[in-house]
Each structure stands twice: as structure tokens, then as C-alpha cells.
Amino acid sequence: MNSDNVLNILWRGVKSKPRKSLPDKTTQVTQGDEVFKVKKEESTSDESDVEEVTHLQSVKVKAEANPEHIVGLRKKNNITVKGKNLPPPLESFDELASVYGVDENIVNNLKSAGYDGPTPIQMQAIPALLKGRQVLACAPTGSGKTVAFLAPVLASLGKPSRKGFRALILSPTRELAKQIFRECTLLSAGTGLKANYITKSKDRAKQLFDELIYDGINVDVIHSDRTQHQRDNVVRAFREGKIWVLICTDIMGRGVDFVGIKLVVNYDFPNSAISYIHRIGRTGRAGMAGRAVTYFTDEDKPALRTIARVMKDSGCPVPEYMLSLKKTSKRDRLKMENTVPDREDISTGAPKLKRFKTNQKLKKNSVQ
Ligand SMILES: Nc1ncnc2c1ncn2[C@@H]1O[C@H](COP(=O)(O)OP(=O)(O)OP(=O)(O)O)[C@@H](O)[C@H]1O
């Protein structure tokens, strides 16, 4: 079933007023690499759908919110906001219940997931969403954006109901959808993971897998040619530490949360700064340390300057020559983002091992 079909089914029977354009009265807050846009509250009829969702609107707003304290709080947590009458940042998950009337169960679940307090994106996005505001938010990878939207969604759903679809979360891959579902049912952290190799295409992922498995490395791969069942098994084995090295493509890796990844290897050079940020964001999650290694060839030079700039801005030492490389035109950049460079196959000429033989070999290795 394609996405149009899914959306048609989900929208069946749903009345919606057409918007003439996307929210035009957004306010924007930027801080470092964070952007936070919140739609201004309006009383136009277009906003009636927003009002329906906000059964929490009547709850008391955080008492005596001292403006200086709020400004200081945002500054300390690197939160930048734009918009009028924004609720103050959440200082603890307890405030969800005491200030916003959120079900205590949700608060307890957050705590039992090991979350001591809200991350900066959660501090500001959660109260804004609970107040029924439309939010466009941006925060670094691994900073807890999933909880930032899930907690308000769960809170606004209140009690279970058989009234069909009441919330819709779109995700680019099944892996990410499952992860969001897992977080929905309170996820537990993964352990003992080593490395995440990212390639540009599934063919390259398969080739790299064939090479690494030949070296007896405890490795597996996810790409779109594998069945969903196989992909699920690989992800689970990686989370459980049974697989130490995971190979995936850009799209398969995006958004996937493996807490313990210490190293990301960009085996193929990312073709945009966004891709680079998403890839390296698989490590160093939830405040942990992580390293990323990026390989490049002469063919990657047009994109090198952009990535080097991102690295420099985030405080990494970068050789000067990379920053002074010729700037690529927007047209060429877009072209690069949409093409896979023709590279030599990844091969040392090793004979290909069949998967079942490989597994036997690994079993044997682990017994010894
Ligand atoms: N308040 C919190 N305290 C501690 N850990 C948290 C908190 N909220 C979320 N986490 C953990 O942080 C990790 C990253 O969260 P999440 O996957 O939501 O990040 P993200 O911002 O969506 O990342 P990406 O942009 O890469 O998809 C997860 O392991 C999650 O369980």
C-alpha cells in the first residue's frame, strides 16, 4: 500500500477546513543549531481544530512565572523561541501533572524509563504543545525529540476511545515507526553496541557486508531488499549486543536510536550537511560520548567544504584547506544530493560466503 492510500484511509470521514497556506504567522527562535517556531495564537475560525485538541487549555498556567527566571532558564539550556505568550519551559516532569494536569501515569512512565528531567527540546516543546500551540521545532540528533512530541500526544488523547484514528505520526521508515511505537510503550536502553557503518546505497551496503563478514566480524546489514522480518531481527540483535557492527544506508539509519553506539563510520561520504548530521547523530546520544569517522575520495570534494563547515561549527578541528575549497553552486549541490556516485565495488576479491555458512562460522567462533 502506498502512502497516498494510507492517507486516504486515515482521512476517511474526517472533516477539515482547507488552509489557504501553511501557517504564515510563525515566530522563530534560534539558538546555536536549534530552531523553534511556534504559531501565534489566533482567534480565527481556522483555529477551531486546534481548540478541539486542547482539552488541557483550562488547566492553570505555571504560577508566578518570573520573566527573568524564564529568560535565564532558556539561556542556560540554549533554547531559543519566537512567538507570543509562550508557556515557560518545563523544569521537571512533575510539572506535567501539577501544572498541566497530565495523567500521573505518563509522568511515572517517563521516570521509570530513567529520564531524570526534560531535555531542552522537551522543556519548551512539551508545554507549548500541551497548550494547543502548533510547533515547528528543531534540535540536535539524539536530544529527545520523540518524547517531546509523544508526551503531549499521549496526554491529549486522555482515555482510550474507539473513535477511530485520534493521532497520526508519520515516519520515513518502518524501523523508525517501530522505535516510536517502542518509545510509546516505554523503551529500554540498548547495550554493548560498537559501530554503525553507513553507506550510500543498498548495493554498497551488501558489498561491505560481504567483506566484513568474511573477516569474521560479527556484523549484519539492513537495507530495503531484506524482508521486514529480517530487518526486525537485525535491529533486535544489534540492540541486544548480539551483533556488534551494523551496516545500513542513509535512509535505514535515519532517526534510529541505539543508545550505546560508540562509533559511526561514514563509509561513503554523506552528500549533504543534513545527511551528515543525521548519520553522526546515531552516536553520542542522550548525552553520551561518541566518535564519527568519515571517509572521502577526490570525487567527494565538492561536498567536503559543506561538511567541514558543519564540523568546524560544532567545535571539531578541521584542516584549513577543506574550508577554503571552492564553494559548490546550489544547482550542483542539489544534483549531488540526488545521485549516487559511480564507485568501484567494495571488494578485496574475497570469495562470497553464504549467509548460513557465515552463521555457522560465527557460532563456531563463539564456542572457541
Ligand atoms: N528526558 C530524557 N532524559 C534522558 N534520556 C532521554 C530523555 N528523553 C529521551 N531520552 C533518550 O534519548 C535518546 C534519544 O532520543 P530520541 O530518539 O527521541 O532523539 P531524537 O532527537 O529524535 O534523535 P534523531 O534526531 O536522531 O531522531 C533515546 O534513547 C531516548 O530514550
UniProtKB/TrEMBL annotation:
Domain Helicase C-terminal, residue spans: 176-326
Gene3D superfamilies found in the cross-reference section: P-loop containing nucleotide triphosphate hydrolases
Biased composition (Basic residues): 352-368
ATP-binding as UniProt keyword: yes
Matches recorded under SUPFAM superfamilies: P-loop containing nucleoside triphosphate hydrolases (SSF52540)
All residue ranges annotated as the Helicase ATP-binding domain in the record: 126-221
Catalytic activity: ATP + H2O = ADP + phosphate + H(+)
Pfam families named in the record: Helicase_C
Composition bias type Basic and acidic residues, residue spans: 34-43, 334-346
UniProt keyword list: ATP-binding, Helicase, Hydrolase, Nucleotide-binding, RNA-binding
Single GO term (MF): hydrolase activity
EC numbers: 3.6.4.13
Region (Disordered): 17-50, 332-368
GO CC, any one term: cytosol
Record-linked PANTHER family: ATP-DEPENDENT RNA HELICASE RHLE-RELATED, RNA HELICASE
Family: Belongs to the DEAD box helicase family. DDX52/ROK1 subfamily.
Protein's recorded name: RNA helicase
Taxonomy of the source species: Eukaryota, Metazoa, Ecdysozoa, Arthropoda, Hexapoda
